[in-house]
């Protein structure tokens, strides 16, 4: 346990040295948060928008439009079917998601919880 804690501390210090403090500010802790870039169409097509903080409502312009996404390294994100983190949820780990139809999530996302 002691070794694990030491390694974690080293990682956190290393991460803080490399990244601006604002990356950590949204959750008020030292965990590393992901950012997510959503795209209007599958295969990263159309318009895109990037979120690095929670969004309780993506707004009329983006509601039920996202069809693909890229999630940066970190703790991942959880997307919700409705605004205010309601309805069905889907956790996206860091990585690329080229077609939400594969997961039954095409044109459904209305809010986003950055982990
Ligand atoms: Ca779409
Ligand atoms: Ca929705």
Automatic annotation (TrEMBL):
Keywords associated with the record: Repeat, Signal
Gene3D superfamilies: Crystallins (2.60.20.10)
Xref: InterPro entries: Beta/gamma_crystallin, G_crystallin-like
Domain Beta/gamma crystallin 'Greek key': 75-115
Pfam families: Crystall (PF00030)
Keyword Transcription recorded: no
Top-level division of the source organism's lineage: Bacteria
Signal peptide limits: 1-25
Similarity comment: Belongs to the beta/gamma-crystallin family.
Name of the protein in question: Beta/Gamma crystallin
Species in which this protein is naturally found: Seinonella peptonophila
